[in-house]
Amino acid sequence: MHKLKEQPKQLKGTFFDMLFSVAEFSSFSPMELTEYMSRTMARFDRSAQLEYAKDTGIKAGMRKGRKLGIEQGREEGITQTAKNMLAKGYSIADIIGITDLSREQIKALKRGLMPTH
Questions:
Q1: Predicted TM-score (pTM) above 0.90
Q2: Buried b (16+ CB within 10 A) or exposed e, 9-41
């Protein structure tokens, strides 16, 4: 390895990469080996930190998305219930009591102005 400046193209691949890596650090002095191991461990630590952060972010995003989806579905269900009640002739007071929508929201539904998502 001391005569090679770089790994020949015909000796590329996982097995040869590992062999050249071993040959490279086997020629290190104790101080160089310590520095090499320290840098390698730092790279592995950083890689693990990034993977953990990515996994944590994905899980948090999924929880938030699920929560928003449930809330949106609940709101759509309440709106549809109020529309059905209006169609069946329920009073605004009864609809308020059952759906907890405001008088203004129900009037907007009645006029067809409130979106149903």
A1: no
A2: eeeeeeeeeeebeeeeeeeeeeeeeeeeeeeee
